[in-house]
Design goal:
This protein has about 120 residues and is mainly α. The chain is built from 6 helices and 4 strands; from the N terminus they run αααβαβααββ. Helix 5 packs antiparallel against helix 6. The two termini are about 15 Å apart.
Length: about 120
């Protein structure tokens, strides 16, 4: 398993083929640019077209752990990544408005939003 990032688009294509993944030049280009720019790559498509498999193959190429996020119509980043604690959030806002409770509000701030657990591939 190689953990060095692919150096070129052709290298991405070759590494996909080595792992028996059939991807086109556009996918290889997108993967290459996401790696080069150190940005996430969001892949959309119908069920069964190979989105998860592409992620698994690239995790193998990079020697990385795959964290899979199951998306659905209407989900946004805040709901996908974070679990909001609305009662605490409202309490936090109210406490910020009351000057004597400001220290308590600052202590509670970290409990308003917590990272959502994600599936691991």
């Amino acid at each position: 398993m190689s953990s060095a990032a692919p150096a070129t688009i052709d290298d991405v294509e070759a590494r996909l083929r080595e792992r028996r993944y059939i991807g086109d030049r556009a996918l290889a280009t997108s993967i290459y640019l996401a790696l080069k720019l150190e940005k996430p790559l969001f892949i959309e498509g119908e069920a069964g077209v190979g989105k998860t498999e592409a992620a698994k193959v690239m995790a193998d190429v990079l020697g990385a752990r795959l964290i899979r996020l199951q998306c659905y119509e209407g989900i946004d980043l805040a709901h996908a990544v974070y679990e909001w604690n609305y009662p605490r959030q409202l309490l936090h806002i109210r406490l910020l408005n009351e000057s004597e409770d400001r220290r308590l509000a600052e202590r509670e701030q970290g409990r308003v939003v917590a990272e959502q657990p994600r599936q691991q591939g």
